[in-house]
Amino acid sequence: MIRANLLRAAAVLATLVATPALAAQCITSQGQFGAYKQGLGQQAASAGVGQRGLQALNSADLSGITWRFESNPASQSGVSQGDPAAFLAKRSGSSAQAFVSQAQSRKDRNAGLFDTLERQYGVPGSILVTIWGLETSWGGYTGQTPIVDGAVTLASYCRRHPRFETHAVSALRLVDQGAIAANTRGGPSGELGHMQFLAGNWERFGVDADGNGRRDPYSATDALASAANMLRQNGWQAGQPFGQGTRNFNVLSAWNDSGNYQRAIAYAAERIR
Description:
Blueprint: H1 2-18, H2 33-46, H3 51-59, H4 64-71, H5 84-92, H6 96-109, H7 111-121, H8 125-136, E1 145-146, H9 147-156, H10 165-177, E2 185-186, H11 199-205, H12 220-233, H13 247-251, H14 259-270
Antiparallel strand pairs: 1-2
Helix pairs in contact: 3-10, 5-14, 6-8, 7-8, 7-12, 8-14, 9-10, 10-11, 11-12
Domain Transglycosylase SLT: 33-244
GO molecular function: peptidoglycan lytic transglycosylase activity
Signal peptide: 1-23
C-alpha cells in the first residue's frame, strides 16, 4: 500500500513538473519582455492560437512608444480635460467647432451609409462619425505601431495586465485567420483600422458589412458597422437620447471608459445634424 501511494505521488509530481503554468506574469521592466512572451505563448497555444499566430508572437518586439505611453499616464490625450470642447480641441489639433464641421461634412458625404447603419443598429450616424473622427481623423491616420507588438507590450505591463491580455491573444488569432499580418500597423495599444478596435472586440463584434466575404477593420464600411454593432450589443437604445446621464451615454463606456472621451462624443454628436 505504501509503495502504491508513493508511486501515485510520484506520478502527480511528474505531471506538475511537466505541465507549465499557463498564466503569463506581468512585468515591470523592459528586460523581462522575453520571459513574458514565453508565458503568453503557452497561454495562447492553450487558447487555440496556431502556428502563424505563435510565430508572430515569437517575432514581436517590445513597443517603446507603448511602454513610454503607459509609463506616463499624464501624457495621454485629454486626461486633464474635463470640458468636452477642450478635449476635442486637444484631440483633433484644431477647435471643437472645426471638428464638428468636419464630422458633419463627412456624414453628409456618406449619408446613405450612415442612414443604413442607423436603421439596422439603431445608432445615430452622428455618434459613429464622431468616434471615427476622434479615433483616426476619418481614416486619415490608423497608426504606425505593429499591432502585435503594441498589443503584447500593453498586456505585459503590470498596470494593464491582465485586462488586456485577452486582446493580445485575439491579435494572434487574427494573424492566424489572415485578418492582419504579423507586421500590420495600428495604434500603440494594438488598435485596429478605421475605428481602432482592440483585437478582442473586433473578434467579438466585427461584421462584414460591405459583403466581400471578410471582416476587415481597414474597410470603413465594415469598421463603422462593427462599431454600431458593438454599441447595440452593449445596450444602445434606438431613438433615445445620449446626453450625459442617459442610458445610451453610459453605453459609450463600452467603447472607451474615459469620462472625458464619452462627454466629447456626446458633445460633438449633439451638434451634428
